[in-house]
Amino acid sequence: MNTNVERAQEHRGEMPVKVEIHTERFLLRELTVGDVSLNYLNWLNDDEAKKWIAAAAVTKELSDLRQYVLARIGRDDLLFLGIFDNTNGMHIGNVKYEPLDIVHGYAVMGMLIGKREWRGKGVAEEVIQHSAAWLRQTWGIREILLGVAKDNHAAIGAYEKAGFKREQTKRIAVDPELSISMVLHLDA
After folding, report:
1. pTM of the full predicted structure?
2. pLDDT value at position 51?
3. What's the rounded Cα separation, in Å, for the pair 80 and 94?
4. 111-123 as b/e: b if 16+ CB within 10 A
5. Is the sign of the CA dihedral 151, 152, 157, 159 positive or negative?
6. In angstroms, how far apart are the furthest CA atoms of the chain?
7. What are the distances in angstroms from CA 184 to CA 3, 33, 34, 90, 107?
8. Is the pLDDT confidence value at 38 over 50?
9. CATH no. for residue 119?
10. Residue whose C-alpha is closest to residue 92's, from 43, 128, 134, 163
11. E strand or H helix that includes residue 36
C-alpha cells in the first residue's frame, strides 16, 4: 500500500483537484474567492464569531476576506471547505483543516457556522463525520485536533457529539487557562 505522502501526491497530481463531499444535507467543496460575499463578511462581524474566531478580529473589509481565502487556495497543507445547503445552494459556513499533516497523519480543524438559523441543528456533527471520513480515506489522516475556548460550551458540546474527546496533545498549543484541546481519533 502507498504511504500517506504518495497517496496525497497521487491525489493532488499535476492538475488541481476538485474536492466535493456530499452529505445528507450539505455539499462540502473547496472554497473559492467567488464564495466571498457580504453575507460571509457579516458572519465574521457577528458578535458570537468575534468571540471565538481568530480571523474575525482582523477581517474588517471584503478585500481582507478575499485575500484570506486567496492565500489558502492551492496549498497542499490545508483543506478549506465551504458548507453549502443541498436544497438551495446557500453558503452557510466553513470547515478548515490547517495544517493538514499527511506525513504524521493529523489535521487541525476549525469551523464556522455563519448562518445563525443553522446553529444548533447538527451541522458540525454531519460535516465532521463526512469530511473526517474523506480525510481518512484520501490522505490517511488518523487524528483531527482542535483548540476551543473553555467557555464556548455550545462548540464543546457539538464537538463531543461528533466524537471528539478532551485530550491534551503536543501537536497544538493551547493556553490551559483559557482553552482546551480536543482530539477525534479516526480508527481504520
Report:
1. 0.87
2. 75
3. 7
4. bbbbbeebeeeeb
5. negative
6. 48
7. 21, 30, 31, 28, 10
8. yes
9. 3.40.630.30
10. 43
11. none
Separation CA 41–CA 11 (nearest Å): 32
pLDDT of 50 over the 80 cut? no
Mapped onto helix, strand or coil, the DSSP state of residue 85 is: strand
**Cell 471565538, residue?**
52
Does the pLDDT at position 68 exceed 80?
yes
Q: Give the start-end residues of each E strand in 32-155.
A: 79-85, 91-101, 106-113, 143-149
* Residue from 186, 118, 109 nearest 146 by CA: 109
One-letter amino acid for residue 78 of the chain:
L
Q: Look at residue 17 in the predicted model and tell me its pLDDT.
A: 54
* Confidence band, pLDDT 50/70/90 cuts, at residue 71: very high
Which residue type, as a one-letter code, is found at position 4?
N
Domain that holds residue 155: 4-185
Based on the structure, what is the number of domains in the chain?
Answer: 1
C-alpha cell recorded at residue 34: 467567488
Q: What confidence tens digit (pLDDT) does each residue in 90-122 have?
A: 999 999 999 999 999 999 999 999 999 999 999
Q: Give the SS3 label for residue 146.
A: strand
